[in-house]
Amino acid sequence: MGNRQRQKSGKQSQRRREDKKGKIYRRRAVAAVFAVLLGTISLIDLIPGEKGFSHREDRELTVKPKMSLKGVLDGGYMREYDAYRTDQFTGRSLLRLMKTGTDLLAGRRREGGVYKGRDDYLLEEIAAPDEEQTDKSVELIGEFARRYEKVPVYLMLVPGAANVLDEKLPDSAVVRDERQSFESIRQTLETSVRWVDVSTVLEKHMKEEIYYHTDRHWTSLGAYYAYQALAEVMKLDMEKAPGLEPYAVTNSFNGMLSSASGYNTGYAEPIFIYTPKNRDEEISLAVEYVEEGVKTATLYDRSKLIGKNEYEVFLGGGHGMVDIRTTADTTDRLLIVKDSYANCLIPFLTPFYRELIVIEPGLYEGDLDTIMEENKISSVLFLYGGNTFVQDSGISRCLK
Fold first, then answer.
1. Which residue pairs from 92-97 have beta carbons closer than 8 angstroms and sit at least 24 positions apart in sequence?
2. Smallest Cα–Cα separation from 219: which of 192, 246, 200?
3. Which tens digit of pLDDT belongs to each residue from 199-244?
4. Are the beta carbons of 213 and 161 closer than 8 angstroms?
5. What is the pTM of this model?
6. CA–centroid distance for 133 within its chain
7. Which stretches of 89-172 are DSSP H helices?
8. With contact defined as beta carbons under 8 Å apart, do 352 and 386 qualify?
9. Residue range 15-42, pLDDT digits in tens
10. Which 3 state secondary structure label does DSSP give 278?
């Protein structure tokens, strides 16, 4: 009996030694493969040439900084060089794609502030408000409205898709409720500013394609429903509005949220613009990008359909000041202070105004008082996506 136990114990010890050796061999094999990959990437990384722009992420990449004594002494050169090596690492795109895929296999559905939701929806995380900045913006908007009490001032804040299409969120997602922030802003402004509630309108149409699947913006359809709500609050004469029909200018849009997260990089969706059904109802436009000194006769820049961010087909993307003059039968003039959410809604408003002056505070270096004094503005609209509004410092800068 004792011999059998000793034999059994000996076999177990031998198996443990073999298992230990096996683990060591496997670890060495993994380490060897990793070393080969790392060495290969490092050798490739020595090949001259750097990218200035990442089309996948739709952003400028850090280029190699120039060394200077000042930069070395204050640490700036090292920080810039570290950012440069991170951005210009040869295997970066592949490793980023591998990480995204690995996270999905592990059940994680959030990357770069973006949730991978149901039905191919990507949903941007709702930003925590910068309370100090938001309070300052709201205070200055209220003061602005009281300063021009004879000119009606309107505020429209657009909720993010994560709040409106919450059923598309992954099960593990917990997002901030923007409605609380919106209600606080509305109450603070009270009667000085006329509130345009688009959250309720968009929620009624949540089953429709009112947000892009791969981008943070609403679609032209979502903007159309918001325009109808705005027209009611502003009491626009809808008899001036032509009958409209959607027209797809591209079917290959892959938006900013895809670039930011690495999800759905192969997903393609359409961008629609709305045009009059009857060409006789179409009004003529003279559009001036004031700070660039560029003039055109259309609100759409089709050259942007060739680039990565095709949403910039609306007004050509961001500009400090755009002056839109129309042949509409009216003398009314509208000042729009906005972020990019407004770009696809503005075309709906052109039949109601002789002139629309469009300001993007983050890119505009002037102030709104000058515009009000030099132009016969009949009404003002602040139109922002909620995430931008609660963090933006541009509003307070151009209202001071």
1. 93/54, 93/56, 96/262, 97/262, 97/265
2. 246
3. 999 999 999 999 999 999 999 999 999 999 999 999 999 998 999 9
4. no
5. 0.76
6. 20
7. 92-105, 131-147, 161-164
8. no
9. 556 555 655 665 666 566 556 655 655 5
10. coil
